[in-house]
Amino acid sequence: MIKVGITGGIGSGKSTVAKVFEVLGIPVYYADEAAKRLMNEDENLKEKITTQFGNQVYKDERLDRKYLSEIVFNNPLGLGHKIALKNIIQGEQIIKYGVPIGSALQDIKTGQHIHLHNMKSDYIPTYTLDNEFKK
């Protein structure tokens, strides 16, 4: 069986291609639908989303997609960057997507951009490609 992934930006025709595949009898897995379901049903994922975007991201136990899109699409920072959702004191762990990613080098106020200028990575590599070549 050949598996094909359809990727592209908003409005690029992914759904159109998927519909063509369906018409041709090719099974299609809609990852967007699965993601929407998981973001509303998976408690672990909901906790991580709430940690990242604040308690107001869920309204009546459902993801407030309008609120989330306003944060994501109206924010001038890239999605890989982080905005402090609370005051962070120097030395405190910084959490991104529910995972500690570093420590604050200085006090960071709610709403400030968090990146290499005010945090240090606490990443410790546990595996490298060198391990592959030692076998």
Would you give an account of this structure?
By secondary structure, the protein is of the alpha+beta class. Among the domains are: 34-74, no CATH class; 78-125, Archaeosine Trna-guanine Transglycosylase, Chain: A, domain 4. Helices cover 33% and strands 16% of the residues. It has helices at residues 14-23, 31-41, 43-53, 65-73, 130-133; strands at residues 58-59, 62-63, 82-83, 93-96, 99-104, 113-114, 119-121. A 3-stranded antiparallel beta sheet has the order 4-5-7. Strands 1-2 form a two-stranded antiparallel ribbon. The chain has a two-stranded antiparallel sheet with strand order 3-6. Strand 1 (58-59) and strand 2 form a beta hairpin.
Which runs of at least 5 residues are low in confidence (pLDDT < 50)? none
CATH class of the domain at 78-125: Mainly Beta
Overall radius of gyration:
20 Å
The arrangement of helices and strands along the chain is HHHEEHEEEEEH
How many beta-strand runs? Answer: 7
**Helix/strand class:** alpha+beta
Strand content: 15-25%
List the SSEs and their pairings.
Layout lengths: L13 H10 L7 H11 L1 H11 L4 E2 L2 E2 L1 H9 L8 E2 L9 E4 L2 E6 L8 E2 L4 E3 L8 H4 L2
Antiparallel strand pairs: 1-2, 3-6, 4-5, 5-7
Helix pairs in contact: 2-3
